[in-house]
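Something for you to look into today, if you have time. Just paste the record in under my message, thanks.
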Amino acid sequence: MSVENTRTDVLVPNPRTVRKSRKGTIRSRESYDESQVKCGKQKYVSRAETHTATKAKTEQPAEPQIEDEPILIPEVGTVVPDSFWMNPLCKKAVVFKVCHIIQIGEAIGQGSFGTVFKISIGRETAALKCVQKSTATQDQQRELSKVKCEFSVWRAVSEHPNVVSLIGFLQTDRNWCFVMEFAPLGSLSHYLKDTGGPLEIDQSRRLAAQLAHAIHCVHEMGFLHRDVSCSNILLVKSTTHPKMLDAKLTDFGLSIKGQTSSSRCGSLAYMSPEVLERSPYATDADWWSYGIVVYCMFVGRTPLSVYAKKKHIELSSLSREMRYELAKNVTIHITRQLNAEQRAFLIDILRDNPVERLGVWRFSHSDGRVSDTLEPFRRHKFLAGFDWANLDAVGTKLKQQQRQGRSGPLDSKEDLQLPSLEERLQSAACSPKLKFPHDRSLSD
């Protein structure tokens, strides 16, 4: 895969490349992880109106290193959670202390790893990501490990202003559920398709800087995202600039602890050359994916989509392996209609050699540690004028919280609280409940 300048100019998004959903978190059709077991499509059956759970109350042990005790929820059919964790660092989580009904609304996104619903808690609106459990015990253990990792990464960076906030976590008999911030404008991929083309240069500059800082924060906390794409970037209205949008990085389902991997995963159109070749990779792969996202902001669609259109190739008609081979041979065309700063920014990020990519320039610490640095982004002409101060302060705060044990990876001393059936039944009287609309159902 190579990058070259050309006068080719394609500004219309390809409806086959980006799956359209109503609003919310959406995954592209090519997004998956070969090392993980896929979850099947979730269905619903009508909820039982009554339950036999006892109303006796019992005190539950506090979760280590978490300020608030988890609210435990009784089992009623298949829709009432049996455990609930509130993010003590999220202000909106306090609503769960006084509201005992979680109203499930419409599905706003669906992908290979689950379904996202719009939910109401009192007067607050949020989103609920449901990841279906496997029926096999052995697979459930693998899924639990994966869910713990997603929980750890998300919790560690949740307070970053350009990351979707994690409000809480719960589980039902059939699903792992993440309660998260609701983004009414939906994903970047959805927005590009609806608007019919690229973003204004000032808007793309703002989003590019915000995302660079969010991704850098994920890396600084000791994780790889591994699925940076337009579908996993949600948009919200800016509170400081009314006419601008802000970016929110989301979906840590493929994230891992550590700085290296060799598993081929993510969204095909955003995979770096080393990921496509199954070679070992590090943070450089996330920066390549970031570069493709920026390309989409400038052009309106992915380089793979542009290449396929130019060659008159119908991507949906190709097998998975054929799409891989096609992606390996894509030449990234950078139109001359972009200004010099935009072209230079893309060329600096989308380099075939991972160590030469913008964002992968290393910083050597006095104790021998080596880490990425945002300095190349701060100095780049395209991002000139962006105020990094507030984001830098947040990054410092998150690192301090991680050192104090208030966020970060789960370990043997800190686990998701999974109470026994007896404990769940004893907590029936005071626990919140999931309430589905009458026409929604949950079945095998």
